[in-house]
Amino acid sequence: MNYSFEYIDIILLAMIAGFIFLRLRGILGKKTGFEGKLPSQFKEEFKKFDIKPEKVNQTFDEEAQKDFLKGAKIAYETIITDFSDSDNKLVASKPLLGKKIYNQFQVALKDRQAKGNYAEITFIGIKSAIIKTHKKIENSLEVTVEFVSEIITCIKDKEKKIISGDDEKIKTVHDTWVFSKDVNSPNPNWLLIDTLT
Hints:
Elements: H1 4-28, H2 40-48, H3 62-83, H4 99-114, E1 118-137, E2 140-156, E3 162-165, E4 171-182, E5 191-196
Antiparallel strand pairs: 1-2, 2-3, 2-4, 4-5
């Protein structure tokens, strides 16, 4: 029996693995991220620059309103579909909700889940979104938006029987929502802080 060929295979494979490792290291390089304190010469250079986070447009001019409405429409659809989907959880919309609204939505979802119900929604689209008011309160900007949207929605029980709504009829919905943003915060998100009827 000749076992030398097995050892040669192992040595050959080790050499190939070593070659591949060295090639990858040569191409990708070594760790080059910042791994320590800044040298004193760089500290002096960084002190020359006064870097501050970009502030929100506090005048809320026409351009700022257009940008805001684009984001508000996306937030509206995200929140509506997240609240009305079948899992009875707020996942995608959580970073868009103020604490008060988040807690109100959680209570409603837990109530729905306790009854064994779930929602089904098809978001057709937003017909209009109009800024009704905008005001600065201390360090916050608050914007009230009136949305008109079209959705197909219904609530079903465990047996998939419709309790409310219609799973085929398009419904026009009028919502008035209040968004807020801390002007001193680097966070670009506006939060939904209230819903008006």
